[in-house]
User: Fold these one by one.
Assistant:
Number 1:
Amino acid sequence: MVDTVSIDTVSSKQQERAMETEMNSIDSSERITLVLGGTGKTGRRVAERLKTRGIPTRIASRSGTPAFDWNDQGTWEAALDGVTAAYIAYAPDLAIPGAKEAIHGFVEKAVKQGVQRLVLLSGRGEEEAQLCERVVQDAGVEWTVVRASWFNQNFSEGEFLGMVLEGAITLPAADIPEPIVDVDDIADVAVAALTEEGHNGEIYEVTGPRMLTFTEVAREISHASGRDVRYVQIPNEAFASAIVESGAPEEIAWLLNYLFDTVLDGRNAHVCDGVRRALGREPTDFAEYAHRIAASGVWKLAA
Ligand SMILES: NC(=O)c1ccc[n+]([C@@H]2O[C@H](COP(=O)([O-])OP(=O)(O)OC[C@H]3O[C@@H](n4cnc5c(N)ncnc54)[C@H](OP(=O)(O)O)[C@@H]3O)[C@@H](O)[C@H]2O)c1
C-alpha cells in the first residue's frame, strides 16, 4: 500500500515535471487560450479581458473560426490546435442529457492535444453539473470550477430581457430568493483562474452579495429604469405550454422546466464567498448593475 502511494506520488511528480517541460517548450505565441461559448454572456467578457492582457485567444462557438460545435466532434481538433488553457462554458446547460458525455469527450481530447489548464463554468445546485465538474477535476491537469448562481444579465441580454421590456417578468417561480451574480464578476474570476497561479483545484461558488426574489428584482429594475416592471407568477403548466408555443427547441423547453421545477426550490438561497476568495474584493450588487444597464439604454422601449 505504502509502495503504491509513493510510486503514485513519484509518477505524478514526474508527470508534473513533464508537463512543465512541455509547457516551456511551446513557443509562447502558440499558447492559445480557448474560450468555449466565446460569443455568449460570460465567454465574450472572458475573451475581451484575455485580449486586453495580450493573451493569444481563440473564440470557440458555432460562429467562430474555425467553427466549434458541441454536437460535432469533428470540429474539436482544429479548435484545440496550439491551445494550452481553456474556458469551458457549455451550451445550453451542463444539466441537459448528454452534457456529461460531451464534456468527457472534449476534456479527453483537450488533454491529449496539450491543454494544461481547464476552467469550467458550472451551475449551483445542479447535480448533473456537479458530475461534469468531476470530469474536469479528474482530467489530470490544472482545473478550477466557477460554480455560478443565476446571472444578473439574464434580465438584460438573456432569456428574460423581452419580459422586462414588456413590463412583466412572467415566470413559474415562487418568490424564492436567489443571490444572483454579475457576469462581469464571473469573467474576472475565470480570467484570474486562466492566467494567474493560486487557483488550481479551487471550486469558486460565485454569487452576488445579497439575495433577491423575482419581485425584488422587478422592483430594482423599475427603480433604476424609471419604468414599471412587475413580477407575475404563473402556474408551471401555463409556462410549459407558453415555451412550446414560442417554438423554443425541445432541449430549451426541458431546461427551463428543470430550472424552475427542480433547481429553484430554495436550495441555493444562501450567499457564497467565491468572488471574494478568487479576487479579494466584494461582488457587484444588483442595484449597481441595474443602474449601469438603465444608463446604457437597454431597458428603453424602442420608439
Ligand atoms: N444564465 C444563468 O443564469 C446561468 C447560471 C449559472 C450557470 N450558467 C451556465 O452558463 C452556461 C452558458 O454560458 P453563457 O451564459 O456565457 O452563454 P450564452 O450567453 O448562453 O451563449 C451560449 C454560447 O455558446 C455558444 N453555443 C451555443 N450552442 C453551441 C453549440 N452547439 N456548440 C458550440 N457552441 C455553442 C454560443 O455561440 P454560437 O451561437 O455562435 O454557437 C454562445 O457563445 C451554461 O452552461 C449554463 O449552465 C448559466
Number 2:
Amino acid sequence: MRPTLGKVLAARRTWEIVARVWPAVSKLRATEENIESYLTRAPAAWAQRAEAAVDLAKSDRLLGKGLLTLGLLAMAGPAGADYSKHPRAQALYAALQSEHGFSAADIDSVRVALIDAQTIPSLIEAEQKAPERTETWTVYSAKRVDALRIRRGAQFIHDNRALLDRAETEYGVPGPVIAGVLGLETNFGRFTGNARVLDALATQGFDHPTRSKFFFEELEQYFVFCRDFGFPPTQPKGSYAGAMGWAQFMPSNYRRLAVDFDGDGRRDLWSAADAIGSIAHYFIDYKPELRWHRGEPLIVPAKLTRPLPGTIAVNTKNVGYTVAQLRSAGVEPSARLPANLAVGLIELQLDPGGTTDKEYWIGLPNFYSVMSYNPRVYYAMTVSRLASAMATEAAKLDPDTQ
Ligand SMILES: [Ca+2]
C-alpha cells in the first residue's frame, strides 16, 4: 500500500530536521541489518517511531533509502543522551557558579539531574504548527470561547472576587482579564502540565534545532529556581515548553515576576492566589514598553472606509500607528480615541461565505500587554472575548457587586 502524501511529507520533514541536528549521524549507512540491531537496543518510544518509518520505507521504493536512514536516525539520535557530558554542559556549570553563586555541591546536584534528564523526542521535531496559522478566527475562537469555559470562569471570578479586586487595585489589571488568562493557560488550574520541566528544558536547551538558545537560558534559570525555591530539579512538572503552575510562567519569569499574593511566605504559582497576583504583576513589570495602562480597554472595533493600503501593517506585536494615522488610511474606530494615541491594527480572518471575510479592531496598549504573555493576536483576542463573557456571567452570580 502506498503511503499517503501527508505521511511522506511528515517523514521527509522529520528527516530534514534530524539530519540538521545530527549531521554526523546522517552519514551512517542504513541497512536493514543495522536498523534491526538498533531496534533491539532503542528505548520503546524511539523504536516505535523508527519502525513506523521503516514500514513506510518498505512500502515505497522511491523513498526507501532516505526513509530507512530516517529510521536509523530516529534511534541513533539522543536516545542515550547524557546531558551532563554534553559539550555545552560545561558552560552551564560555569554560568551557575559565576553568575548565581552555585557551590561545588550545587553543581554536583545539577550534574546528577542532567544525567537523569530524559529526552522528549517529539520536542525536537518541527515546531508545532500554531493553530492560528491554520485556523480562521471563527474556528479558533469557537473552540476556546465556549459555554463551559465561560461558566467556569464566572465561577472562578465569583469564588476569587476579593483576590481579583485586590489585584486590580494594586496593579490596575481587571479581574476578568486575569481570569481569561488563567482560563486559556490551564483551564483555571486543571491542566498545569505533566512533563518534567527538567526533561522539557534539557531536551530543547541542548537539542532544539532553532530555539535551543532560549531554552538553554531557561534551563539555567530553572536550576537557580530549584535551588532558591527548594525543589529537587527532577520534581516540578509543567508544559512541554517548561512553563509552570496555573499561570504557566517560564523559570526566568517565575523568578523575576511571581509574587506571594496570599502572604504565606511562598511564591507558589500552583496556588490560585499567587497566580492571580503574579499575572497582574507580569502585565506591569514584564517590559516597560508593554506595561498595562490602568483603566483602558484592550480593543475597539474598527471599520474600513476604503480598502486597506498595503503600507499599513496588521497583527503586529506592538503598537505602530497613531489613531490619526490609521484614520487617514481609512480605518475608523467605533469609539472616540485621542488622535495621538499609539495603537495597532488587528485583522481577523473569518470563515468564508459571510458578508465579509475579515474583521478589524484597533488594538490599544493593553492588547499588546496581553500579547506579551503569548505573542499571538488570536491569543490576546481570545483573552479579551473571554474576559467580557466571563464578567457578564459572573455578574449574574454576584448581583450585589453590580
Ligand atoms: Ca503564597
Number 3:
Amino acid sequence: MPTFEFTVKELKKLSRKKGATENIRLCGFYSNDGGKTFEPDEVKCNGCNWEVTRLFVRAENREEAEKLLISGSAGLCGECYSSMLAEGVECAKM
Ligand SMILES: [Zn+2]
C-alpha cells in the first residue's frame, strides 16, 4: 500500500470538511487582520500527540487517505510512521 504525505497547508483544507475539525488537530495562530484567519503551522500526530509539520497516511489512494484523515483513523508523524512500519503493524491506527 502506498504512503501519502499531507502538509499543514493540505490538512488545513481538509479540516474544513464535515467531521474533520476535531480529528485534524491543527495548531497555529490567529492573524492580526481582525483575528479571523486561523493560520496553522503545525498539526498534532495521532500517535504521539507531538506537533509536527506533516502527516503520513497509508492507503490505497489519495482519496482514501483523505477519508481516513477526516475520520480521525489515520495520520502519523514521520517518527510514528516509521516505527509502525518497523513493527509491521497492518491495521493499527496509522
Ligand atoms: Zn507521532
Number 4:
Amino acid sequence: MTLEEKLLSLKIEGFYIEESVLSPTQAAEAYVSTKATLQEGSGRIFGSTFLNHNQCLAPYLAAPRIMEVVVAMLGSSARIISTSGNLREPTAQAEPDPPGGLHVDWPWGQSGGSYIEGQLPDVVINLTTFWMLTEFSQQNGATIVAPGTHKAGKNPNGYPELKQARPTEYQVEAAAGSVLVFDGRLWHKGGTNRSASDRVFWGVNYAPWWLNCHARRPHSVEHRIQTQAGHTPTGHWPYLRSEVYELFPQPVKQLLRHWVDREWVMSKAEAEAAIWDVSYFQ
Ligand SMILES: O=C(O)CCC(=O)C(=O)O
C-alpha cells in the first residue's frame, strides 16, 4: 500500500494492516520473549509501560513504514504514550463471541476514568497499533473492528444501546510480524481464542505531543483532579526507567523521551522558578 492508500483507509475505514514489519524470525523471537515476561507477572504490575519489563520490540517501534503514517497523522513531534504486552489464551468456549460488545480505549472510552466527555471531537488524537507476534486468525480470536465507527462521534463504552452488533464487523486476519494500525476512536474488541495456541501481541499507542497523559500517572495533579471529579483513572502508566530508555536507538528515544523518569519531572525549585522567573514573560 502507498502512504496515500494507508491514510485513505484510516480516514474511511479507520484502520489498515501493515504487513511484514517484523520478519518471521523477529516475530518468533519477540513472541518467546514477550510470553516469558507476561508469565512472570500480572498486567497490574506492568501497567501500560510494558517496556520497563521487556524491550524486545523496542528496536522496531520507529520502523519507517509505521513512522511515515504516524507523522502524517499526528505530526513530527508525535510520541509513544503507552505500551502493553498481551497474551490471549485458548478457551474451551466452542462458539465465537456474538457480534457487538465493542469498545474504544483511553482517552475516548467513557467507562473508565479521565476520558473525553460527551460528543467526541472529529479529530485523530491517537493511533493504536497491535504488533502481531503470532498470526491473527478467526480461529485464535483475532481483533474485531467495526469499520467507520471512528466517525460516530460516540463510543459504545457505557452506552448499552451502542453495544449492539454492527453489520460490518470485521475480523483482522494477518501473519505474525504484521501491525494493525487504527484510529484510537475505532470500535473494536478481541475475539474468542478457539485455537490450541496463545495469541500474543503488543499494543503501542502513538499520540501528538499535546495530548495530556498525566491523568494516568498516580500522584499527578490531573490524576487527583479526575479522582475528585469521580473519574478515577483506571490502569496506570508508570514512567519509563531511564536505564531502560538508554538501551534504545536514537529514533526510538525520540518517541519516548517525554516519558522517562526523573528527566522531565519538575523539582519544587524548578516549579517555583517557572512561576517567578520574569524572563518567561519577556
Ligand atoms: O484482544 C484483542 O485483540 C483486542 C484487545 C483490545 O480490545 C484492547 O486492547 O483494547
